[in-house]
Amino acid sequence: MISLRFPAVPIPDRIAILIGSQVPERVLRAQVEATNQAHCISLCRKPEYAEAREWALSALHRANKTLAAYNPKLIVRGAA
Fold first, then answer.
1. Going by C-beta distance under 8 Å and a sequence separation of 6 or more, which residues neighbour residue 63?
2. At what angle do helices 50-70 and 25-43 cross, to 10 degrees?
3. Number of C-beta neighbours around residue 35 at 10 A
4. For residues 45 and 32, what is the distance between their CA atoms, to the nearest angstrom?
5. 39, pLDDT greater than 90
6. Alpha helices (H) in 1-80, listed in sequence order
7. pTM for the structure as a whole
8. HSE on the CB side for 77, CA within 13 Å?
9. pLDDT band at 59, cuts 50/70/90?
10. Cα(38)–Cα(64) distance, rounded to whole angstroms?
11. Angle at 21 between CA 32 and CA 18, to 5 degrees
């Protein structure tokens, strides 16, 4: 399977497009959603943001479920 984690060396645009075309659209959307929600979780530290943190955690878990079904190495860990 193709991993979305890229090496530290530059990748030509055509190669990146080829890699992206091999990954299903739902997995790409789930990867973006999981990354965004992990960032939101890190911002919701104070007690008054508990509801927003819980909502972001649930969205992160939904996205991770899609990612794990495709490849377990793609799971995004939130800073909880």
1. 30, 31, 33, 34, 37, 76
2. 150
3. 14
4. 22
5. yes
6. 13-22, 25-43, 50-70
7. 0.73
8. 2
9. very high
10. 11
11. 115
